[in-house]
């Protein structure tokens, strides 16, 4: 991989963001809305005496991290869809740019956008609800890493499916995280799920990340088990997602579908 070609992908998306503020607005708007909604709910429960001590920090912390995961996963697929919408895909891959270089550049761009959204949400939580997540971020960094790795895997799978079935299934870009959310145990522990849903929930790196996050924020220390289990699952999902994406991309290129995807 050539660094200058990866940098070119980053610059290309930077220029687009200057002309298309939708990209920046989406990165900030939804994380902030999540914090506003969950913050009001936390205040309501606290005033009614229905909330245990420390639950506010768990709810707001989970909302911040879930917003980051959702934005990163969504933008991984949206970045590719933008090339289809503008019919720029053939132009990109008629150059020496490789798929690995393009994906790496896209990861860098979307990581920056996700960090901007997370920072905006964290600042709103701090100023409006007196919840400061910044001191805890160092301890949460391993779980955030697992969330980002899984977001890359999910984004790669969705992109591969678009290669196979075209933009008819582009709705998965925005809806798949909604399907994952109940099993990811973002705002409640795994034991809150019905027994038959616990095994599939344990197979999601997101579940391991939020379980570890709750333990860290509640003062229980770093959960090596949740981190290691999430890391192992991510290794499996990432390898599978990369192989799936390469298979779909090579199949589309061999059949001449790159110029026909709509």
Structure in words:
With 262 residues, the chain is mostly helical. The chain has one domain. It is built from 10 helices and no strands. It has helices at 3-19, 22-47, 55-85, 89-93, 99-129, 137-165, 172-184, 198-202, 205-217, 224-254. It starts with a helix and ends in an 8-residue tail after the last helix.
Describe how the helices and strands are arranged.
Layout: H1 3-19, H2 22-47, H3 55-85, H4 89-93, H5 99-129, H6 137-165, H7 172-184, H8 198-202, H9 205-217, H10 224-254
Helix pairs in contact: 1-5, 2-3, 2-5, 3-5, 3-6, 3-9, 6-9, 6-10, 9-10
Which characteristics define this entry?
77% helix; single chain; globular; 262 residues; 10 helices; mainly alpha
Short characterization:
The protein is an all-alpha fold and 262 residues long. The chain contains 10 helices and no strands.
Overall pLDDT level: 83
Strand content: under 5%
Query: Rg from C-alpha positions?
Result: 19 Å
Our count of domains comes out at 1
Global outline: globular
Order of helices and strands: HHHHHHHHHH
Assembly state: single chain
Helix content: over 70%
Which stretches are low in confidence, meaning pLDDT under 50 for 5 or more residues running?
A: none
What is the structural class? mainly alpha
The major β-sheet equals: none
How far apart the termini lie comes to 29 Å
What is the β-strand count? 0
Q: Please give the count of helices.
A: 10
């Amino acid at each position: 991989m050539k660094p200058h070609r990866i940098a070119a992908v980053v610059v290309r998306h930077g220029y687009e963001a200057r002309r298309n503020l939708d990209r920046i607005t989406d990165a900030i708007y939804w994380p902030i809305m999540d914090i506003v909604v969950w913050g009001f709910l936390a205040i309501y429960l606290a005033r009614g005496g229905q909330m245990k001590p420390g639950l506010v920090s768990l709810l707001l912390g989970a909302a911040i991290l879930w917003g980051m995961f959702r934005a990163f996963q969504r933008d991984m697929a949206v970045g590719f869809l933008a090339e289809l919408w503008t019919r720029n895909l053939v132009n990109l891959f008629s150059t020496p740019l490789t798929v690995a270089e393009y994906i790496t550049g896209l990861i860098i761009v979307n990581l920056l956008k996700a960090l901007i959204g997370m920072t905006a949400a964290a600042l709103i939580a701090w100023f409006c609800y007196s919840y400061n997540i910044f001191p805890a971020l160092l301890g949460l960094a391993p779980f955030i890493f697992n969330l980002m790795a899984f977001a890359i895997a999910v984004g790669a799978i969705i992109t591969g499916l678009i290669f196979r079935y075209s933009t008819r299934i582009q709705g998965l870009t925005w809806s798949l995280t909604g399907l994952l959310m109940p099993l990811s145990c973002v705002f409640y522990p795994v034991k809150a799920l019905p027994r038959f849903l616990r095994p599939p929930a344990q197979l999601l790196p997101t579940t391991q990340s939020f379980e570890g996050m709750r333990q860290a924020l509640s003062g229980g220390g770093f959960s090596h088990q949740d981190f290691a289990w999430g890391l192992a699952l991510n290794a499996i999902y990432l390898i599978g997602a990369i192989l799936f994406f390469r298979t779909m991309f090579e199949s589309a290129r061999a059949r001449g579908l790159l110029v026909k995807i709509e």
